[in-house]
Amino acid sequence: MQLRYSFRLYPNGPQRVALARAFGCARVVYNDALRARETARVAGEPFPKTGDLSKLLITEAKKTSERAWLGEVSTVVLQQSLRDLDAAYRNFFDSLKGKRPIMGAPRFKSKKDNRQAVRFTANARWRITAGGDLSLPKVGDVRVKWSRTLPSTPSTVTVIKDAAGRYFCSFVVKTEPDEVLAPVAPEVGIDLGLRHFAVLSDGTKLDAPRFLRRAEKKLRKAQRALGRKAKESKNRGKARLKVARAHARLADARRDFHHQLSTKIIRENQAVAVEDLAVKGLARTRLAKSIHDAGWSQFVALLEYKASRYGRTFTRIGRYEPTSQVCSQCDVKDGPKPLRVRIWECSACGAVLDRDINAAVNIAKAAGLAVSACGAQVRRAFMPAQRGESGTHRDGQSAVVGIPHR
């Protein structure tokens, strides 16, 4: 399988200038090629081929006074920019044919985009030096902070600058299936939520870290300071960078949490099952901020690729499975329940069930995993008290469905 490894880059002043020049030249070539193809489309002419665009927009353009500065960067970077445009058009046409999710047509790039990137292939003759630096053509030897060893020799490297002004080098390498973990017995279903980030079918509940909620006060202060700065001023640029760095710290903390939890689950269980949640639909509700803060999609994607890498079984069940309505003890569907109900009593067998653990057990059973359903039960149903002896809930409603007030 192919894996992506990213490492932090620390270019010096001249190297940052050279990388900014490479970002700008790649962007100009991309926009020129997009403009040429859009002009041909409007005129009813066939799209210019990549080879013709390369000759016209790179080779010939370097000889003109208006585009002579294209020769200050590696030609490979400019050619890869044309290939990126080809990929954007291919993805767009595939989405129209229903081969992939709906995507918009390619758009022009701006120098104010939050993310800038260029790609160097083997033809550019980039290399990793004996001292551990990344040698890039017409940029120099850039210092890299290596956090791990690459499993194989990569053929391309992508240099990225994010919104927070940080630089990264990204490698895509091929790995062999030699990291298969030893088989283990447990199999687990996972119910993702907001109060608890993940509830496992064995009864384990993992609290949601809520990184965004905890940092809201600091973020609000930085964003208000940004709003008070004059447009196009240097102070506004500094304030924008502070906001971007605050969001970058949040994203890094969330990603680290997802990595650690997904690795732990994959190592301790032979098979993992999750529910295919409609995250895009849920993100349009009043819970949008909390749902984006949880990052369910990223976590499930990490589980899936780690299961494939380490020889585990990963299963998604349909999003329309009534996991919260079916009793995991007797498999009787007891009907929908509002979100405020966290514990309910089965009307058929009388078992008192924890809503989240019961859903996790049902997810595992729907995936065909050998999971015991005993973890879903909280306790046996109580005998109803006499009305004169029973109390009331503070909002006048029972907190447990099926059990009278007491």
Task: Describe the model.
This protein has a seven-stranded antiparallel sheet with strand order 2-6-7-1-5-4-3. 37% of the residues lie in helices and 18% in strands. It has helices at 13-42, 50-59, 75-96, 211-214, 216-227, 234-268, 279-282, 288-294, 296-309, 355-366; strands at residues 2-10, 116-120, 127-128, 134-136, 140-145, 157-161, 167-174, 187-192, 196-200, 205-207, 271-275, 313-317, 343-345, 351-354, 377-380, 400-401. The chain is α+β, with helices and mostly antiparallel strands. Strand 4 and strand 5 (140-145) form a beta hairpin.
Write the layout of secondary structure elements.
Elements: E1 2-10, H1 13-42, H2 50-59, H3 75-96, E2 116-120, E3 127-128, E4 134-136, E5 140-145, E6 157-161, E7 167-174, E8 187-192, E9 196-200, E10 205-207, H4 211-214, H5 216-227, H6 234-268, E11 271-275, H7 279-282, H8 288-294, H9 296-309, E12 313-317, E13 343-345, E14 351-354, H10 355-366, E15 377-380, E16 400-401
Parallel strand pairs: 8-11, 11-12, 13-16
Antiparallel strand pairs: 1-5, 1-7, 2-6, 3-4, 4-5, 6-7, 8-9, 9-10, 13-14, 14-15
